[in-house]
C-alpha cells in the first residue's frame, strides 16, 4: 500500500489471474494454497510485487509492483509467471494464462476467507464455478476526481481492449463460438460492462453506495465495471482484458492503457470533456468483442456505426501514440500489436491447438506460452517462428527481480 500511495502519476502495475489444472487431465485443481506457499506469498520485489489467492481455490494471482516503464513491467510479469508455474509443477499441476478453463471438471471449493464466503453467498451458484481470469492494469493518477474523468475517456476503448485480449473460447470443456466466454460470464453480474459516464468522484461513490445498499454488491470495493477508480490505490484500474496468453501480450495491454490514460489527461488539461458515448452502443461493442474478438466488427459508440476491429485497434494505438512516444515505448507497442495481428489472439491460438489435438492440446499450448519469454508466435513445431526478437528486446531493459 505504501508503494502505491507514493506512486508517481503514469506509473504502472498489473495484476494477473491464473487457473491451476491437473497436468494429466487438464481439470481445475484446488491447489492455490500449496502453490502460493511454495511461490512465496510475501512481496518479491522492492516495489511490492506479490502473489495472492483468488475467489476459487483453483486460482492464483500475481501482482507486479509499481513500474516506471514497460521493460521493468515485462521483467516482473515474467518472474511472477515463472515462479508460480514452477510451484504448480511441484504439485503435478500446470499454470494456465487463460480467461477461462479449457477442460470441464467438478467446481473447486472457494478460497478460505470471510470476504470470499460473503461473495459466494451473495451470488449463489452463478459464482460456484466462476473460474474467470483477467488482466488488470493500474495507472497512477493524481486524485480520484481525475480518475473518474479518465474513466469517462476510456469508455469507448474498453471493447477494443477486450477484443484484442480475447483468450477464452472454451466453456466447461466445450469450444464455443465466442472469443471470450469470460466476458459472457461477467455479464451475469449486476453493474457489469462499460461503466456509466460520471461527473465526479462523489457521484461515482454515490452510485456504488446505492448498489451496495440495494444488496447487489458485497461492498464498495466490489464492482464489475471494466474500468474504475481503484478502491484501494490512487490509480485508474482497467479490467477489460482476459488474462493474457503471454507476458508480452500483458505488456501490450499495459502499454495501450497507459497511452490512453495519458491522452485522457492531456484532454482534461486542455478542457476537453470525454464524449458521452451511448451506453447501449458500448454494450453492443462489448458483445461484438466477446463474440468475434479481432475477427469481426465492433460498434464504434462515438461514431455510432460498425467498424472493423483492427481499424479501431489502429485508432486506439494512434490515440495512445503521443504518450507512448514520450516514454519511448511506441515502437515496442506497435510491434507487439503487429505480432498479435500475425499470430492471432489468444482465442485464435487456442482454437488452432484444439483443432490439431483437442482440448488437451490447447491446455498444453497454454501451459507452454504462460511462462514463455517470447511474444506469441506460431505454436506448431513445424512452423518457423516469426522474427520477433526485436519486439521482446524492447521489454528487456532491466534485470530480473531478485528471488524471495
TrEMBL record:
Broad enzyme group: ligase
UniProt keyword Nucleotide-binding present: yes
Pfam families: GCS2
Alphabetized UniProt keyword annotations: ATP-binding, Ligase, Nucleotide-binding
Family: Belongs to the glutamate--cysteine ligase type 2 family. YbdK subfamily.
Keyword Mitochondrion: no
Ranges of compositional bias, category Basic and acidic residues: 394-404
Stretches for region Disordered: 365-404
GO biological process, alphabetically ordered: modified amino acid biosynthetic process
HAMAP family linked to this entry: Glu_cys_ligase_2
NCBIfam families, sorted: gshA_cyan_rel, PRK13517.1-1
Annotated protein name in UniProt: Putative glutamate--cysteine ligase 2
TM stretches of this protein: none
Functional description taken from the UniProt entry: ATP-dependent carboxylate-amine ligase which exhibits weak glutamate--cysteine ligase activity.
Catalysed reactions, as listed in the record: L-cysteine + L-glutamate + ATP = gamma-L-glutamyl-L-cysteine + ADP + phosphate + H(+)
Organism per entry: Actinomadura meyerae
EC number(s) recorded for this UniProt protein: 6.3.2.2
Organism lineage string: Bacteria, Bacillati, Actinomycetota, Actinomycetes, Streptosporangiales
GO molecular function, one term: glutamate-cysteine ligase activity
Amino acid at each position: 500500500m505504501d508503494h502505491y500511495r507514493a506512486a508517481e502519476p503514469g506509473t504502472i502495475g498489473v495484476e494477473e489471474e491464473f487457473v491451476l489444472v491437473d497436468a494429466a487431465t487438464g481439470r481445475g485443481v484446488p491447489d492455490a494454497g500449496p502453490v502460493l506457499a511454495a511461490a512465496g506469498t510475501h512481496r518479491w520485489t522492492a516495489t511490492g510485487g506479490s502473489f495472492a489467492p483468488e475467489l476459487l481455490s483453483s486460482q492464483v494471482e500475481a501482482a507486479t509492483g509499481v513500474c516506471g516503464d514497460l521493460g521493468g513491467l515485462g521483467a516482473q510479469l515474467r518472474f511472477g509467471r515463472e515462479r508460480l508455474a514452477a510451484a504448480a509443477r511441484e504439485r503435478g499441476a500446470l499454470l494456465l494464462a487463460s480467461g477461462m478453463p479449457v477442460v470441464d471438471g467438478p467446481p473447486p471449493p472457494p478460497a478460505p476467507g470471510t470476504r470470499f464466503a460473503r461473495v459466494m453467498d451473495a451470488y449463489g451458484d452463478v459464482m460456484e464455478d466462476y473460474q474467470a481470469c483477467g488482466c488488470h492494469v493500474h495507472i497512477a493518477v493524481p486524485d480520484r476526481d481525475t480518475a473518474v474523468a479518465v474513466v469517462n475517456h476510456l469508455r469507448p476503448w474498453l471493447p477494443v481492449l477486450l477484443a484484442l485480449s480475447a483468450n477464452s473460447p472454451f466453456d466447461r470443456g466445450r469450444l464455443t463460438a465466442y472469443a471470450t466466454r469470460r466476458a459472457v460470464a461477467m455479464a451475469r453480474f449486476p453493474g457489469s460492462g462499460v461503466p456509466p459516464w460520471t461527473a465526479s468522484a462523489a457521484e461515482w461513490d454515490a452510485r456504488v453506495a446505492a448498489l451496495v445498499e440495494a444488496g447487489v454488491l458485497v461492498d464498495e470495493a466490489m464492482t464489475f465495471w471494466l474500468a474504475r477508480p481503484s478502491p484501494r490505490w490512487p490509480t485508474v484500474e482497467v479490467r477489460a482484458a482476459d488474462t493474457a496468453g503471454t507476458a508480452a501480450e500483458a505488456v501490450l495491454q499495459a502499454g495501450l492503457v497507459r497511452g490512453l490514460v495519458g491522452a485522457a489527461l492531456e484532454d482534461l488539461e486542455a478542457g476537453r470533456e470525454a464524449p458521452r458515448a451511448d451506453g447501449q452502443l458500448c454494450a453492443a461493442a462489448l458483445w461484438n468483442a466477446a463474440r468475434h474478438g479481432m475477427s469481426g466488427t465492433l460498434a464504434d459508440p462515438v461514431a455510432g456505426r460498425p467498424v472493423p476491429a483492427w481499424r479501431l485497434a489502429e485508432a486506439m494505438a494512434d490515440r495512445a501514440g503521443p504518450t507512448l512516444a514520450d516514454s519511448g515505448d511506441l515502437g515496442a507497442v506497435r510491434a507487439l500489436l503487429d505480432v498479435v495481428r500475425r499470430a492471432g489472439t489468444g482465442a485464435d491460438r487456442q482454437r488452432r491447438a484444439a483443432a490439431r489435438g483437442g482440448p488437451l492440446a490447447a491446455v498444453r499450448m497454454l501451459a507452454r506460452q504462460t511462462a514463455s519469454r517470447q511474444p506469441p508466435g506460431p505454436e506448431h513445431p513445424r512452423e518457423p517462428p516469426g522474427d520477433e526478437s526485436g519486439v521482446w528486446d524492447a521489454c528487456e531493459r532491466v534485470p530480473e527481480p531478485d528471488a524471495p
